[in-house]
Amino acid sequence: MNRANETPKCTEKCTDYNEAACARRELAVAEQAAMNIDKCVDVGDEEILQEENAIRLLMEEYIMPNDFNTDLLEPQEISAGEQQRILQKTMQNMQNEPRAARRGLPRRRLWIFGLAAVMLLAMSSLAVAEFALKQDFLGFFNAESGQLPQQSGQEINMQDRNENGALTVEQVLGDNQSVYVLLDFVAPEGTVLDKDSYQWDQAWVTLSKSTGAGYYFEQLPDDNPADNHLRMMLCLQTEASLKGQRLDLELGGLKGYSSEAMDYTQQLAGEWKLGFVLDYTPTSEIIPQNVDIQLGEATVHVNSLEISPFTIIVDMDVDNPEGYVPPEGYVEPQGGGVEMAADGTERMIPYSERPIEIRLGDVLGDLDFFTVTLQDGTVLETNGGGGHSEKNHHQMIFGFNQLLTVEDIASINYLGQELPVR
Fold it and tell me: Coil, strand, or helix at residue 48?
C-alpha cells in the first residue's frame, strides 16, 4: 500500500485549546508523508530538495510560533475542526485530480507544491484566528460578539514610553473615511487616575495626505477608577480615503478634570509620539440616489449614500447655494467668528456674515435633520458627524451609537426628504 496517497491525519484529539499544536502536527505529518513516497521518484534533484528545505524552513519559522497566543482564538474564529477540514479537503483534492494534470511534473515535486499550498492555507487561517478585536469596540458600538467586521480592523500594538507613563495604540477599526483608534495609557506606579474625565492638553493628529479632517478623544468606561490605567478612543473623520495613509499622533500633557473643583486639577507632563500606516479593509455599500431637495431657491441634488457599519456618507451638489432657506425648525448656531484685517487687527463678525458655504454646510450637517429608522421601528441616534465642502460639492458624514447594516434600515430621512435604501 502506498502511504504517500493516504490523507495525513493527526492522531491526537483536537480541542479549542490545543488547535495550534494540532495544526502544527497536521503539517508535520504531511511533511513526513512527502518524504515516504515511491522510491522510483528522482530524489536527487537538487532543485526539488531546495524547494523542500525552503518549505520546511517556512514551516519552522512561520507556522504556529512557540509564543502563539491561543487565548486570542474566539468562538467566531476558525475552529480546530474547520482548520483540519481545510487541510484534509485540500490534500484530498490534490490526490483526486486527473493524472493528465500531473503530466510533465515529477510526483515528488507535485507533492511539494501541494504541501506548500496547504501550508499557506494554514498560515492564512491562523493569521485570521490570531487577531481578535478588543472588547472595547463592542461597548463603544453597543455591539455583540461576532457583529464587528473583523476585516475592517487592524492590530497595531505600538507603544511610546517615558518617565510619566506609557501610551499604546492597540488596534484600529474603520471604514473609508472614518477610523477609531483604541488607546491605552498607564501612568507610573503609585499614580491614581481617579478624576472625572481626562483629556490631552495638546493633541496633534496628522495624516500623510493633506486632507481636511476632524477628530476627538472619548474616554472609555473604567472598571477600576482608582488605578493608574485608562483607555481612550480617538475618533477621526476625513474627506478622503484613509486606506494606506500614515496616521501620526503627538500627544502631550494628560490632564484630569474634577467636577468638584470645576477645573483640571491633575496633569501628567510629557509627550508621546506614535505613527503607523492604516492597512485595514473597509466595508461599505454605495446606493445611488438622484434625489432633489429644495431649500428655498437652492436645490440640493443627492448623488449617493455610502453606508458602512459605522457611518453614512451623503454625497451631494447644490445649485444656487446663495438662495438657500433653512428647513422649518432649524436652529441657527449662536456666536460668530473672528476676521483678520489687512493691518493685523481683529474684529468679531456675526454668524449671518460668515461665508455662505459655512452657513449652508451647517444646515446640511445638522444632526436633527438626518434620521435613520430601522425595520423594527427604532430610530437611531446620531452621535456625531462631519463634513467637507468644495465649491458647490458637499459631503456629510453621520455617525451612530450602534452598528449599521443596509438590510436593517427601513428608511432614511434627510432634510425632510426620504432617501431610497433599496
Answer: helix
Give the Cα separation of 217 and 158 in Å (integer): 18
CATH topology of domain 140-277: Immunoglobulin-like (2.60.40)
CA-based nearest residue to 26, from 106, 121, 94? 121
**How many angstroms from the chain centroid is the CA of residue 369?**
28
Indicate the DSSP class of residue 131: -
Distance CA 211, CA 207 (A): 8
DSSP 396: E
The CA distance from 136 to 235, in Å, is 14
Report which residue type is found at 266.
Q
| Highest mean pLDDT: which range of 183-187, 240-244, 400-404 | 183-187
Total residues found in the chain within this entry: 422
Determine the Cα–Cα distance for residues 341 and 349; give it in Å rounded to an integer. Answer: 12
Instruction: Name the residue with higher pLDDT: 104 or 139.
Output: 139
- Specify which residues 64 forms β-bridges with: none
Query: Strand, coil or helix: what is 204?
Result: strand
Where are the chain's structural domains? 3-130, 140-277, 285-419
C-alpha cell at 340: 483678520
Predicted confidence band at 199 (pLDDT cuts at 50, 70, 90)?
Answer: very high
Question: How close are the terminal C-alpha atoms of the chain, in Å?
Answer: 60
